[in-house]
Amino acid sequence: MDxxxxxxxxxxxxxLQQQQYTxxxxxxxxxQARAEYESKKAAILRQxxxxxxxxxxxxxKMAKPELVASVEAQLISLAQSGRIQAKIDDARLxxxxxxxxxxxxxxxxxxx
Length: 112
Fold this sequence. Notes:
- The protein has one domain (2-95): Orthogonal Bundle (Helicase, Ruva Protein, domain 3), CATH 1.10.8.
- It is elongated, with a radius of gyration of 25 Å.
- Helix 1 (2-48) crosses helix 3 and helix 2 packs antiparallel against helix 3 (65-80).
- The protein is built from four helices and no strands.
- Helices cover 78% and strands 0% of the residues.
- With 112 residues, it is mainly α.
């Protein structure tokens, strides 16, 4: 009886160790895929943006990461479809960012 319980415990322990190993392998694989994606994204952005424009994006990323992710995705999409002919400089990037930013509503308080 004790031998059966020990065998069950041993199998359960092996199963848990196998699950943990599989989980770690999947996490490492996902991390590698993410790093590969980020390096490809950075390479494409280096090709289509001037250094000043890249610097502006990296600075803006600290304050508005969602906006920068959206802009990067759109720029990469345009570059892959061949719709970007020349490098995007800082002035063009600023104009693009202004177009993509949500409009701010102004509130006025009127006293009666």
